[in-house]
Write a sequence for this structure.
């Protein structure tokens, strides 16, 4: 009878992070290939997730096991990017995703397969460890995701959240975008132009583009309005300084929380009490009634110019 191979199963379990291990690693540990084949068969206790990558249990892999398997498949030095990395960085307003996007060195040959999107790059950044996984820095991660999105409002929401939360400055996003590939960047550049003008949300982006097409003067966006004593009155979405007119796009959907929205309402009240003309517009009106919105804004602007300007000051909001 052939001599039975002694397998160090403790060593296998130690090497299998999140129960994920590669066939090559099992080979190095002395696990016979016929044992691997038998255990990873249809009725076996293991699952073959990706070429050369196994889950040491059967059933559906968890999110963490999918991430680990993608990294094991991609090889040494791989890191997560795109939406999975943005999720690990703590972003919350992400479009649905199932693919695991990974970066690998340009010289490595590895094809995308199943749920893994492999991107070779000559600009492999120093990874940051998030929840135990190597992830691209946040600016790189969100732009890698944005380049693959086709819905400009999804791109706006994706790039707006880290800026609104003070995690990334728009100038850093612009620098990262200019340093990388030009593939898929046209919509990203539109959104970044808006953001560099201090436009932060999809709804504000619609308002910004509508105003660009009008005969009204250009607005300032997301500036701090102070009264004569320096007290903060509010931070309206748009601001005509010559007329002291604030334009607010009223939508709970594009604020970070109900508490943020309630704060916005209180500030609207303070601005009105200080003599500021405040125009309120729903995001849906920007899409369905753009001419009516512009007509109302134009009338309010002319009205505001006719009354004495209140003693308020606009200050660019520090991110």
């Amino acid at each position: 009878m052939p001599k039975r191979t002694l397998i160090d199963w403790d060593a296998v379990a130690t090497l299998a992070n999140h129960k994920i291990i590669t066939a090559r690693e099992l080979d190095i540990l002395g696990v016979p290939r016929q044992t691997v084949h038998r255990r990873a068969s249809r009725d076996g206790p293991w699952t073959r997730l990706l070429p050369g990558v196994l889950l040491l249990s059967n059933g559906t892999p968890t999110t963490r096991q999918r991430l680990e398997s993608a990294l094991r498949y991609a090889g040494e030095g791989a890191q997560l990017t795109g939406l999975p990395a943005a999720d690990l960085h703590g972003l919350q307003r992400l479009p649905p995703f199932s693919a695991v996007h990974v970066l690998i060195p340009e010289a490595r040959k590895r094809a995308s397969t199943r749920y893994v999107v492999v991107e070779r790059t000559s600009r492999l950044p120093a990874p940051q460890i998030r929840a135990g996984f190597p992830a691209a820095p946040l600016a790189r991660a969100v732009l890698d995701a944005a380049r693959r999105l086709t819905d400009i409002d999804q791109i706006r929401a994706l790039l707006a959240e880290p800026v609104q939360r003070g995690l990334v400055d728009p100038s850093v996003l612009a620098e990262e975008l200019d340093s990388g590939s030009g593939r898929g960047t046209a919509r990203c550049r539109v959104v970044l132009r808006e953001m560099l003008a201090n436009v932060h949300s999809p709804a504000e982006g619609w308002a910004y583009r509508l105003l660009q097409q009008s005969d009204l003067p250009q607005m300032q966006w997301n500036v701090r309005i102070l009264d004569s004593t320096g007290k903060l009155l509010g931070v309206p979405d748009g601001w005509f300084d010559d007329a002291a007119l604030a334009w607010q796009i009223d939508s709970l959907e594009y604020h970070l929380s109900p508490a943020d929205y309630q704060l916005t309402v209180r500030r609207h009240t303070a601005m009105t009490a200080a003599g500021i003309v405040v125009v309120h517009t729903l995001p849906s009106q920007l899409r369905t009634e753009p001419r009516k919105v512009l007509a109302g804004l134009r009338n309010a602007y002319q009205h505001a110019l006719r009354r004495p300007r209140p003693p308020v000051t606009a200050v660019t909001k520090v991110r």
About this structure: The radius of gyration is 26 Å. The longest strand covers residues 100-105. The chain has a mean pLDDT of 92. DSSP finds 13 helices and 15 strands in the chain.
